Amino acid sequence: MRVRLDEETLKAIANKTSAEYFYAGTAQDLKKVYETLSSKLTVEKKETEISALFALAAAALALLSAGLSLVWFNRIL
């Protein structure tokens, strides 16, 4: 099945993401694209909220303590 690319949309996406759009209709064009690409790594720091992990651990401990209380004393308190 042949599918036609929407080049305007691809160019708009490349523009919004600060990227480049290359059209490679032939093998020679594709080879030129690969020659111009460079490999570079980007390090990005992100802050991550970890309070949910602490809340999960606290809930697990509360359930564990309630279960042990039921086993040992036949009541939760």
Please characterize this protein's 3D structure.
With 77 residues, the chain is mainly α. 56% of the residues lie in helices and 0% in strands. The chain has helices spanning 7-16, 27-36, 51-73. The longest helix has 23 residues, at 51-73. It is elongated. It starts with 6 loop residues before the first helix and ends with a helix. The model has no long low-confidence stretch (mean pLDDT 88).
Secondary structure topology:
Layout: H1 7-16, H2 27-36, H3 51-73
Summarize the structure.
It is built from three helices and no strands.
Helix percentage range: 55-70%
The Rg value, from CA coordinates, equals: 28 Å
The profile of the biggest β sheet is: none
**Bulk shape:** elongated
Q: State mean pLDDT (0 to 100 scale).
A: 88
Total beta-strand segments: 0
Number of continuous helical runs: 3
Strand content: under 5%
Structural class: mainly alpha
Reading the helices and strands in chain order gives HHH
| Beginning-to-end CA distance, first to last residue | 68 Å
Low-confidence stretches: none
